[in-house]
Write a structure and sequence with these properties.
The protein has about 900 residues and is mostly helical. Among the domains are: about 15-210, 3-Layer(aba) Sandwich (Rossmann fold), CATH 3.40.50; about 220-285; about 810-890.
């Protein structure tokens, strides 16, 4: 048991906490050990019921850390401020931020300043909606960089179960990086009060703890007796001490409060007085605490109520305004409440705002005071608090937390305030807070002409984070009268986009078609027609492929690229022609006509919402598979830079990395491709499995690993990330069935691989195909070469005809490689020589290396093998390089060396 000390009352909650304090001390000492350069950060978690001593442990952790020369940043969550985005992470970082000049903060945070700065309140947000995932990443970087400046650093977060969702998202991401940071994070959690939406983040945080979190135990009777005697006198007898334990259940907080009441009432600590302890305990908690508060007078009660309503940022001046007290009265009330152990001034180390800030002595007291306010009065005080906050110039977002608690009352002004608050929340990357504001605006309710616009804004607010939620709100908005013109067209487009990303492609197409049918000819109708063909163009099934191609051809025939609707149709026609293997020169001509002086037109940029990312990915893909890799890579690299600088770190950034990886893969830079695709997959995991972007990252990574010769690793990735049927309804580049079929062949599952490639063949029946994007014919021909040479030859001939129709050096060279693989002797050598010639002229280095190695093997030419080996090594094609080395190491005719 922890020994009694002179400060026993102040440290009551530390009795019988030797194991926890030892863990704290060990973690702090490990943090400070600069003799170990590989030392990593760590996380400690204290859990338990209310009053069990979690806050006291964090306070003692601060004392120990500061005594050992550590910097300590801390924050406390609150039951009444869970809806305030970034509240807790701002508290954590305030000590560092207030010590930095703006130019210093910008220097430390670098490119992340404009992304994380608005969430931290140190800079104004940009004009675009911030991506919450990138804001979270920016906060992780911000804390990481500031931690390096303040090492050794300890972060303390009390009552993390009440933290806002944005802070929890940051903390969950941050603790996963502790292996690379020398930071000690200590959190206190009350498990029974965890909200459903907080549980996943808290599970991640808990999993990062040094050891499984165990709940703090109540004090034993022996510890309670020792604490009692240390507080009220050594003459306290055993029956009295046992009753103290029985009344409080060994809860440290209740024990301290009860003993304080014993001292205040001058109760003699002997058996004869034990019967009075229960009544005293009731006065120290719940209704008894309320009675004690009321005994201080109506002004002090109003002051405490106002402080509880504010919850955070409590100053005498602000409370005085809310409680309608004169400043002198407010100061007197603050003093009374401090003496009564209800409010206190934070210790200097804990202070996070201006001088004069107050806080409740304990979170339990804050909750009890808040709940003691009569319901009607509490609601009214929140309304007044919203006005006070607004009058102080803190903005609609700050006032919105109070307006969320006000009863609906057909208030047009409140609806507009909540819409403005939502815009402010979106600008800093807090879409959940925006959603709460707009949903509250719906309850008011809005005027009929405003109602569909609020629903539309709700759909836009959730577009980046929850396609399913977006669908519900936009469908409701479109079902109501009042949404007309370009806003309605935009709502239809966004709805179809959400349906697409929710894997409801056919519904997305129907939605666009229905709206287009009700419009008169003009730019709006043309836009929706283009969107229709855009979604049809990404449809993997392709049942109506030929009909769509004819319709697109007709629509694009008269398009000159004079506006973005025409440019979109040109891109769509070019993509359609590319996937079907039509003449590559015509594909490029169509795509070039969609540009303005070789660049994207205004309104068709990567962050422009009128058309979205899909159209531009089609444009870049068309260039990729027509051997115009310079143009494709320029587009995809631009996307990456734009999304990084704009703070779009979720699905958009994941797709940008995937298509940058595609460019690297086609160029033959396989190591760079793998890096980009792994980053894409990491980001896609955060957005959610099963979405089209997830398939793009996984398929591209498997394809790249196969090219590198890492078949087992490719198989492991496929198994881990579910790269297997059923496939998504949207087209994936490269073709999923072809990649899966080649993977199965590579790991020796030949029959399954053949079946997969035959399924790819069936899917393209009735129309042509791009033999580079979907190389099923060549792969199937190789697989059937021994068992069914006749069919293999037919497939090779089909691939060659289709490649020659398409006309790129890569397509023809690859078709010749397949044909050569089915031949022997001089015929094989001649075909390989032709393949090398074509692929040498193409930008695809890996395919060129493969042709050189195969040519060298067929002709037993050391020169060709060495050329192939050098190029394979440069590409990172380990399997191909190993094959070349093996053959070179075997017997080769002297004349060919």
């Amino acid at each position: 048991m922890t020994e009694a000390r002179p400060d026993a009352v102040a440290s009551a909650s530390l009795w019988e906490r030797d194991a926890e304090l030892a863990a704290v001390t060990e973690a702090i000492d490990a943090l400070r050990d600069d003799s170990s350069p590989s030392a990593a950060g760590s996380l400690l978690m204290f859990t338990g019921e209310a009053g069990i001593g979690k806050t006291a442990l964090l306070t003692e952790t601060r004392r120990i850390a500061e005594k050992r020369g550590c910097t300590v940043w801390s924050a406390r969550s609150g039951e009444t401020v869970t809806s305030v985005p970034f509240n807790v992470v701002r508290q954590v970082l305030q000590p560092a931020l207030v010590s930095l000049m703006p130019e210093e903060a910008r220097e430390y945070l670098g490119d992340w300043y404009d992304i994380a700065g608005p969430a931290l309140g140190i800079t104004e947000p940009g004009e675009r909606q911030a991506d919450p995932q990138n804001v979270c990443e920016g906060l992780v970087v911000a804390v990481s960089r500031l931690a390096e400046r303040e090492w050794p650093l300890v972060l303390l977060i009390d009552d993390v179960h009440w933290a806002d969702q944005e802070t929890l998202r940051w903390l969950a991401a941050f603790v996963e990086r502790l292996v690379d940071l020398r930071v000690l994070v200590v959190v206190a959690l009350r498990p029974g009060d965890v909200a459903d939406e907080s549980a996943p983040h808290l599970d991640t945080i808990t999993a990062a703890a040094l050891c499984p979190a165990g709940s703090l135990r109540a004090l034993t009777p022996e510890a309670t007796a020792g604490l009692t005697r240390a507080t009220v006198g050594t003459h306290a007898d055993d029956p009295f001490c046992r009753e103290v334990w029985a009344v409080t259940g060994g809860n440290p907080y209740e024990t301290v409060e009860l003993l304080a009441k014993v001292q205040d009432s001058q109760l003699e600590p002997v058996e004869a007085s034990a019967a009075d302890l229960r009544a005293l305990n009731r006065s120290a908690r719940g209704n008894g605490l309320v009675a004690r508060l009321e005994s201080l007078g109506i002004e002090a009660t109003r002051f405490a109520w106002a402080a509880a309503i504010l919850g955070t940022g409590i100053t005498v001046d602000l409370v005085a305004r809310l409680a309608t007290l004169r400043h002198e009265e407010a100061v007197r009330c603050a003093e009374l409440l401090s003496v009564a152990r209800i409010l206190t001034e934070p210790a200097p180390a804990n202070r996070h705002a201006d001088d004069g800030q107050l806080e409740f002595l304990h979170p339990l007291i804050a909750s009890a005071v808040y709940r003691s306010i009569p319901d009607g009065l509490r609601t009214a005080m929140h309304g007044i608090a919203a006005q006070v906050v607004t009058d102080c110039g803190l903005g609609a977002a700050a006032a919105s937390r109070h307006l969320l608690e006000v009863h609906p009352d057909d208030d047009e002004e409140l609806v507009e305030q909540m819409r403005q608050a939502a815009r402010e929340h979106l600008a800093v990357g807090a879409p959940e807070a925006a959603r709460r504001c707009l949903e509250r605006a719906l309850l008011e309710p809005p005027l009929p002409e405003v109602h569909p616009h609020v629903l539309y804004e709700l759909g836009c607010a959730t577009l980046l984070t929850s396609p399913a939620t977006t669908i519900d709100y936009l469908q409701a908005a479109l079902a109501m009268p009042g949404l007309e013109g370009e806003v309605r067209v935009d709502a239809v487009y966004r709805l179809s986009q959400a349906l697409l990303h929710n894997n409801q492609l056919e519904e997305a197409i129907r939605t666009v078609d229905t709206e287009a049918a009700r419009l008169e000819p003009g730019s709006s109708r043309l836009r929706l027609q283009a969107v229709h063909h855009m979604w049809e163009g990404v449809h993997a099934a392709g049942e109506h492929s030929l009909t769509r191609s004819r319709e697109l051809t007709e629509l694009a025939r008269t398009c000159t690229g004079r506006d973005n609707s025409e440019r979109a149709l040109l891109i769509l026609r070019g993509f359609d022609a590319m996937t079907h293997g039509e003449n590559a020169e015509e594909v490029v001509e169509l795509c070039d006509r969609a540009l303005v002086n070789g660049r994207l037109a205004p309104g068709l940029g990567w962050t422009d919402t009128e058309w979205g990312i899909e159209l531009l990915l089609m444009l870049g893909s068309s260039y990729v598979y027509t051997d115009r890799l310079d143009r494709a890579e320029s587009l995809f690299t631009e996307a990456l830079g734009v999304y990084d600088s704009a703070g779009w770190g979720g699905g958009h950034l994941a797709l940008a990395h995937a298509y940058v990886g595609l460019g690297h893969r086609r160029r033959g830079r396989l190591r760079s491709a793998e890096t980009s695709l792994r980053e894409s997959l990491r980001l896609a995991e955060r957005v959610g499995r099963g979405l089209p972007l997830y398939w793009s990252a996984t398929c591209g990574l498997v394809d790249t690993l196969l090219a590198r010769g890492h078949a087992e690793e490719a198989w492991s990735i496929a198994e881990q990330y579910g790269f297997a049927p059923p496939y998504p309804s949207t087209i994936v580049l490269p073709d999923t069935r072809c990649v899966r079929g080649r993977l199965l062949l590579a790991v020796g599952r030949t029959e399954e691989g053949i079946n997969e490639l035959e399924a790819a063949e069936k899917a393209s029946a009735g129309h042509g195909h791009n033999t580079v994007l979907a190389p099923w014919a060549g792969a199937l021909a190789r697989a059937l070469a021994a068992a069914d040479p006749r069919r293999a030859a037919e497939l090779a001939a089909t691939a060659r005809r289709q490649a020659e129709l398409f006309g790129t050096d890569t397509a023809i060279g690859e078709a010749l490689r397949v044909a050569a693989a089915l031949e022997t002797g001089q015929r094989a050598a001649s075909l390989y020589a032709q393949a090398v010639s074509y692929l040498e002229a193409s930008p695809c280095a890996y395919e060129h290396a493969a042709a050189l190695v195969e040519y060298g093997i067929a002709t037993r030419s050391a020169g060709e093998l060495k050329r192939g080996l050098t190029l394979a090594q440069a590409c990172g094609a380990d399997g191909l390089a190993a094959r070349a080395r093996d053959v070179l190491g075997a017997t080769v005719p002297t004349g060919s060396r």
